[in-house]
Amino acid sequence: MKYDKINSELFVKNRNNFMSRMSEKGIAFFNSNDIYPVSADSTLPFEQHRDIFYLSGVDQEESVLMLCPGASNPNHREVLFLKETDDHIAVWEGPKLNKKQAYETSGIKTVYWLDEMEKVIDEVVKECNDIYYNHNEHYRAKIEMETREERFNKWLENKFPNKTKKRSNPILQHFRSIKDPIELELIQKACDITNKGFRRVLKFVKDGVWEYEIEAEFIHEFLRYRSKKFAYTPIIASGNNANILHYIENNKQCKNGELILMDVGAEYANYSSDMTRTIPVSGRYSKRQKDIYNAVLRVKNDATKMLIPGADWNQYHIEVGKLMTSELLGLGLLDKSDVQNETKEKPAYKKYFMHGTSHHMGLDTHDYGLLDKPMQANMVFTVEPGIYLPDEGFGVRLEDDVVIQESGNPINLMQNIPIEIEEIEELMNS
Fold this sequence. Notes:
The protein is an alpha+beta fold.
């Protein structure tokens, strides 16, 4: 792994939190992701399932975590099952975790090889009434293929049909949405790496540069500072491409007079950052571009102040909509009749700002979080309003990542990333 070793205290705490919500006679399992084939003998780079990583810190394929807080044998209350390494694997793939390294990573003392797993599970499940099954229940998830986790779940159901089925996800949704101080440090690291990439790009952009060249500048800097990749597929959208919300082709040439909307973030240790900035190809914004930009910035700043403990998710977005409506009226993009004729289902501002303002962020860019529960301290949210003007050939979106505090305004993890017009112009022209 490129990232520095994470203090195993984080994973010990996460497991203890999870097990505190389990039934006395419950047992839970968590699996690594598959290694996905491309074609022939090629595979996609391995990405660890965020749930097993959150609970163990193990960042390796073919790993299984078992939690059984009520097990009569104390050694079976937390168990890792790992792929056994050997000299052949070490030569061809690099060494895998041995039992000592697995303990140092996770804080879990009991480690078995995978060929012992079924025997151990048979022994421990006999004592249990409830099996906690882990499924992807994120509100944005679209499940189109059967994962390693789901195949394991089917195996459990067939093997132990008389046990009560329970869900792990509601517990994970709660705890994963509230970040530990160690997690906040890791997210801050990802944001700091993103800052380095953005500052490099500000010096690089000029008339005639290609979107993919800008993408390359970002990833160059990310890799330099121990990020293994983009946290998500980057958007480098010049001119009218900015009005395609999920534009990822990044294959157009940038020309003077255009703006470039860049939605880019580095990851660090599997934790995401998520930044959007909109900059001028020429290094100078036009008067119209400035007016739109500053309107978006005001909405972002005012929306950020609303992210406080107890805030309601739906009401928050309603209030942000009011802010945006006011700005669009001031810009002449809406008039009073537009507002008078709007409906709850189709507010007038959605013509120019059609997506949400915030989402949870952490181990996933769109992280777990229960939207029907009030916001709490140490939740991390994006704040990303935008105004999109296809008739004028540009769009502006600005996005920072912030941490809700017990009191006062959220802490902006991207406060060091330039966002004010004056600073961006100065850096681009220095």
